[in-house]
Amino acid sequence: MHAPASAAWLLVALCAASGAYCLLRMRSAVEEQRRAAGAEALMGFGMAAMAVPAAFVTPPRAMWLVCAVVFAAAGLRSVAGVGPRGARGPRGDAHQLHHLVGAVAMVYMSVVMAASPGGHAGHGTSGTPLLTGALLLYFAAYVLRSGTRLIPATATRLGHGQGQGYGHEYGGGTGTAALGWGDRPELARACRLSMGIAMFAMLLTL
Fold this sequence. Notes:
This protein has 206 residues and is mainly alpha-helical. Helices cover 71% and strands 0% of the residues. Helix 5 (129-160) runs antiparallel to helix 7 (185-204).
């Protein structure tokens, strides 16, 4: 992306750290947790690659086309997981739909970067304003909603000593006290919030 180097490297670090934590979450004993974490790890590392400053490296355009194909496949997988066949319930379907929107945003940014001079967006002529605006509105709303949910959820679990952990999100009954670092729901929400903020910042450069 085309952004000040210091801000770009902060985005790289944030997205890479989020992706690394999602890899840790993939070791969870909860199947739905592993599936969600895999999609989010792909998103985190993909965003980290996109955020690398243009002055540092200029990837070939073919790389962005490959990224578009990869995230298009990830989006189709998210679509397949929504509805009766997924049997995840409203909360699980909401996660899949969010992954779908994220995949659409990644495909969009990949195509824009492949079509932009030098393979980097942000030169004033790239992107479709209507689609960019719609994605910006979505991720702004997602960040605000995630932020308001994160603090009360953390406070409630700390106040009661034992919460429902991912049992609340996926229907199981695991207690918070027994959860490892990869299964902490508040950390997973913080990770998603971080990636939502990073996605919003990256879309602003289009």
